[in-house]
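Can you make up a protein sequence with its backbone structure tokens?

===
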Amino acid sequence: APSPTPSKTPTPDLSGTLGISLVAMETNLGTIVVDGERSRAVYVFAADPPGRSTCTGSCNSLWPPLLTEGFPQAGEGIRAELLGYITRREGGFQVTYDNQPLYGYAGDLNPGSTLGHGVGGNWSAIRPDGRPR
């Protein structure tokens, strides 16, 4: 007899809770999306397929995922319809923008810093329209 197909665990609905906010900020790269609390740039990883994070394990020590405990909020200059989140395999909810998982960069120590942009040719700051910088 054929074995049953495993069911995919649904992503929990966070719509009733407020999460991290993102805002648009003018930087040396032009206007980019930043974490609204610390004003740090957020990045997308070129190797990530839409809606899935492939930066796990030791990758996360340099590129920590942008996590939220509630539905991400659109601050100044951010398109609310592009905000979302995914459930990470390790647990937690990672913010997405235009279905792209978002990360911080451990080297960005100051507000508005964009040192992670272009690292290894795989990491890009993101514009408010959802396109990589």
Notes: Residues 1-9 have pLDDT under 50 and may be disordered. Strands lie at 18-27, 30-35, 43-45, 67-68, 71-74, 83-87, 93-97, 100-101, 123-125. The helical segments are 59-62. The chain has one helix and nine strands.
